[in-house]
Request: fold
Amino acid sequence: MTDRDLDRVEGLISQLLEEHPPAETPETEFWGAQYDLGLAWVWHPEGEGGLGLPRRYQTVINRRLTEAGASIDNRARNVLGIGMGAGVLAAHGTPEQKQRWLRPMFTTEEIWCQMFSEPGAGSDVAGLATMAVKDGDEWVVNGQKVWTTLAHLAKWGMLVARTDPGVPKHQGLTYFVVDMESSGVEVRPLYQITGEAEFNEVFFNDARIPDANRIDAVGAGWRVALTTLMNERVAIGGNTVPRGSGRIAEAIDAWKRYGGGDPALRDELVRLWSEVEAARLTAIRADEMADAGIPGPEGSTGKLAWADNNKAVMSFTLELMGLDGTLFPGGYELIRPTEFENRPPQHGFLRTRANSIEGGTSEVMLNILAERVLGLPGDPRVDKDLPWKEVPRG
Amino acid sequence: MAEVRVSYTPTEETTLLRNTAREFLSNRLPMATVREMMMTPDGFDRAVWEEMAELGWVGLAIPEEHGGAGYGTTELSVIFEEMGRMVTPGPFFATVGLAVPVILGLADEAQKSGLLPGIAAGEIIATVAAFEGSRDWGLENVETTATRDGDGWVLEGVKPHVLDGHLADLILVVARTDQGLAVFPVGAGADGLTVEQVDVLDPTRRQATVTLEGVRAAAPLGSGPAGDALPRALGVASALLACEQAGGAQRCLEMSTEYAKTRHQFGRPIGSFQAVKHRCAQMLVKVEHARSVAYHAVRVTEDPAEFAIAAPLAASVASESYVWAAGENIQIHGGIGFTWEHDAHLYLKRAKSSSLLLGDPRYHRRTLGDALGL
Ligand SMILES: Cc1cc2nc3c(=O)[nH]c(=O)nc-3n(C[C@H](O)[C@H](O)[C@H](O)COP(=O)(O)OP(=O)(O)OC[C@H]3O[C@@H](n4cnc5c(N)ncnc54)[C@H](O)[C@@H]3O)c2cc1C
Reply:
């Protein structure tokens, strides 16, 4: 809270920039140095990429680094690792696990993926069926995951597997970190409505995981999974971004090119801009409240609003474009995408459809808001107390 | 565009004000009293006004040298938010939300010393007579005229929608002079002035038609044309109103949530049906958004460029959120929500009428679009 903390952070930023001038330093080296100085996750303890300071200092760090021409692209490149994996390790990892994984995660030398969803377990992820059976110092894994973003580039995967089918579903899960290059792990591309494959299917065929790669206790997998999902939703909807950035910028560009001053279109544009700005201010306020130790409902609404706004903004952008909105520049190529920036709005229109599905569907987010924040009664649950193996599936 | 960062964290002052306001309003103006008051001819009780003045609320944002407490809109907004929760009747918005910002924004020091101490002390209820055409929120077609006459002015015109005009001791009249719009303070008893209450959608916030027939007035505020200061003062009013709207929307969410937990149908609380539960969750999102834009606006009133964006943003978002939440609140209550006996309709009426007082959401979006250069 005190200025001394800020001075310290500012001093370390200056040191980083002096010792490793962004223009001359390879990115991974720069990110490594950033980690070593505690400027990676400033709220982590010292020695784990942080300084034990409030999260808001990260905003200062990121801003100054960006201004100095340094890349903070690692967050996007290793989104599941830096956005979620780090939070999991911070909360549940052993000191050895943090030492082993955090630094190369931050430098993007090791990409991470998240293997929760299965063909039979999406929203109800606790119902998953991939099995892990203990064999000496190892676990033997069999089953299938799906929609696994970045699995084809990942070195490590966060896996939730069933270790005890005889107890109710939430109790029989354990969390592991899997070496994606080990034998018995097979990754196949899955193509999305954009024609691209950001995500994959992953098959486990007697894959082996050392017990040292287990996160938290056997049977505690659900608790760790929840940490992951919380971090995911903050990473997705809770970011404090600059005004007018993100999808709404695409709508404003289209307005300038196509709008022709039409008052009805302008009203809709400003309405959407206002929705986005209201959500943005809410994220900023939530951040501040969380820092001040007053967590409130404003922190939970971001993911939902982000999804709704993105879909509405991109749909409207195509309307602004009129007939040009019916084109798809570059065509559908059925490729693994490597470029994520500067895509045409038509691509954005399709891609944002996933925003209300990935990271928890909007229906599930509404359930969570209603039940956890407002305290409304849960849906009737037929499966809650049944041993997992007796629950009907399909 | 440079970004203006302000703090939203409650301070000692705002927390104290909120607690006091919640306690006073629930003891002195509980819903039963609100309902009684809204059925009286005046819709208000002057004794309550004196109590509010004694609590320091009326003069909260009036500078100390003019008899007030010298706080800013941030502190004042807390009272509005709390009053919004309780659909508090009376001229608090007309006086403190509308007239005081107009005086602070336009008057010279001598006029402030003349007008503000009486207001802060609770002796003078004030309002602003600005709008004429039903959709002329930009005051482009004001027809009321002010003509020079000796060392004073003569006012002629009709103002059909003056908030709490029937209670006001002081009416700030927006009139056209040969140099543009100017704002003239007029006392309630002035010759040629008639004030007649009209029947309104929201009985907790009254209106009157004010007719000016050869009413004599002294110099306008600032002794000249109002210029940009008037729209800016109306912006402050919309920001404060947005806080009131956020408070009302919050109360609708609370009512709906409470009811959804206790009302049972098909052997379950209705809040376990997703059609109901999801509506409540969506209300939560809209309420938080309304609160964010309103909190932001009242904190940047001193920064003209940012405020030109923040005020219409707050007005349009808070208006739409509140109207929507008030409607959903009735729906979630079913038949009981449609009865006179239930409080839900008070919120719907307040919400709809508030969303039209200083500009409808489209009007505010037009202003916002201009400020954004779109
Ligand atoms: C682009 C993309 C990337 C993804 N990346 C990953 C990843 O990296 N790792 C990973 O593990 N997963 C990933 N996912 C999977 C994602 O988390 C799931 O798709 C999501 O949780 C929904 O599960 P499902 O697809 O099985 O749909 P289902 O759960 O079958 O849902 C179908 C429909 O039913 C509704 N529904 C389900 N349950 C309820 C309920 N209780 N109340 C109301 N409605 C309900 C849903 O809202 C939805 O509309 C990704 C998905 C997408 C689209």
